[in-house]
Amino acid sequence: MNIIVFAENQDGAFKKSSFEAISYASQIASATGGQVTAVSIGQVATDKLTELGTYGADAILNYQDAIFNQFTGEAYSKALAHAAKNKGADLIIISNTYSGKMVAPRVAAKLNAGMVSGVISLPETSNGFKVKRMVFSGKSFAEVAINTSVKVLSITPNSFTIAENPKSPSIETMDAGLSASDVKTETIEVARATGKIPLTEAELVISGGRGMKGPENWHLIETLADTLGAATACSKPVSDIHWRPHSEHVGQTGITIKPNLYIAIGISGAIQHLAGVSSSKVIVAINKDPEAPFFKAADYGIIGDALELLPKIIDAAKAFKNA
Amino acid sequence: MKILVCISQVPDTTTKVTFTDNNTKFNTQGVQFIINPYDELALTRALEITEKQGGTVSAITVGLADTEPSIRKALAIGAHDAIRINAEPIDGFFVAEQIANYAKNEGFDLIFTGRESIDYNGGMVAGLLGEMLNIPSVNVITAIEIENGMAHLERDIDGGREKLTAQLPCVVSAQKELTEPRIPNMRGIMAARTKPLKVVEPTGSQANTQTTSFELPAPKGACKLIDAADAGKLIELLHHEAKVI
Lengths: 323, 245
Fold this sequence. Notes:
Chain A is built from 10 helices and 17 strands. Chain A has helices spanning 16-32, 46-49, 51-54, 73-87, 98-111, 218-228, 236-240, 271-277, 294-297, 306-322, and strands at residues 3-7, 9-10, 13-14, 36-41, 59-63, 91-95, 114-119, 130-135, 140-146, 151-155, 170-174, 185-192, 204-208, 231-234, 261-265, 282-287, 300-303. In chain A, the strands form 4 sheets. In chain A, strands 7-10-6-1-4-5-11 form a 7-stranded parallel β-sheet, with helices on both faces. Chain A has a 5-stranded parallel β-sheet with strand order 14-13-15-16-17. Chain A has a two-stranded antiparallel sheet with strand order 2-3. Chain A starts with a strand and ends with a helix. In chain B, a hairpin with a 2-residue loop joins strand 10 and strand 11. Chain B contains 6 helices and 15 strands. The longest helix of chain B is centred in the N-terminal third of the chain and has 17 residues, at 37-53. Chain B is an alpha/beta fold. The model of chain B has no long low-confidence stretch (mean pLDDT 96). Chain B has helices spanning 37-53, 68-77, 92-103, 125-132, 186-192, 233-240, and strands at 2-6, 9-11, 19-20, 25-26, 33-35, 56-62, 81-85, 110-114, 137-147, 150-157, 160-167, 170-174, 197-200, 209-215, 224-226. At the A-B interface, helix 4, helix 5, strand 7, strand 8 and strand 9 of A face helix 3, helix 4, strand 9, strand 10 and strand 11 of B.
């Protein structure tokens, strides 16, 4: 298959999820034959662009007009559809980041392509084209067949490993033929927490629930997270009573995450919460109630009071990091 | 201000998910259905906007007759009228196409969807609608104000928040924080009985995708308990045994 991959950058550096997407595409191209073209949109330095070759990009299309200096779903989807037509692509792969979610459906509609979002498997191509995705916010999986000749997949971050497959890609500067009137949205301000790992991309996540007893105790969660290089999250009750921002709420009505390690501290493990985290590779539950449902979903558990246990765990984590 | 809110009916969040017919169908036996929570936020925010600056809110759903209680509830919450497109919502593309076909001649200034439905989690209807109607679409908004024909928005981005504007008409998808959901009162429930609910037959489009089977996650093995007195041992196990740190 001829594959187009959206290589998303943030401030000129490609995101980890972009390398995952290229590795994913590269595996499909190896199995089915065909070329992987990475599409970079916005300002990225040439030495950064060539990084895409490390993971299997055969070619790079570079869209860097001023119109792409701000992210907009309209302009970015036009560039991707332009690239897909240019390369005669039959598969478009986009990581399911917040920007990816905005772009992918617009690309699918432009190309009249069948789209599957939140994909967690390589496609099965022996009989048609099928992929696996999470449904019911992680409570189960579905296998979905795409019937159209052109297909769009948005793949779940942290679901695929980054694998090297070095190529020496050509870099072609492209013009999507956009004018200012094609874009009807305008970015006013972008605020990102500096030095913090975004929850959706984190490999390690430390999460707190009402067992933390109050927002004043969250420094323990943050210290453990900082020590291990993890992102912080919380349960729904905690965000509902405004101990923590909604953006940290993981669960069925919050964010669904798939980290390598999820440590749930003082969270009982209601079915809605488990839905959002059950695909984590390793789950640790810390709760004073031995009957807490989380222990049934966890790989490791400690029964005890969060505020008493956390300092011990932090000490051990610090010793481990300093060792 | 003419606003359209897209409503999807989903299983209640406490639902234990099971399947029938050799794992090809979601088992609806004993399942309570609700309005998708993000759609409920969208509806409430749409009502707040029209209460402040005038206008109407229409609720639309793509579903068979069994979705009527949810669309009636949208009317009870405060939508002025409702449209049900009489079809099984096969996939996001199909749903968006049905809604776009209805909306294209109706002159809506603003179209709301939820961020995603909590059952199939596609999260693609807002973007598809935007493209099909050739208007901007902005995902996961946490704030919206309308001023001088312009939507002033805030949306979640990876690791932060973005402020932006969008020209009307546009499509937005509702994220938590947008507002607090409204519960219908008795007057609203009574009024909903006589509000217009139009049933429209689907236009002939085909689904691009097809769910062929479902699968439940493999059950976890036993949880390894660590003695509370030796809690620090967790770090060692995560490193040497689980190999995740």
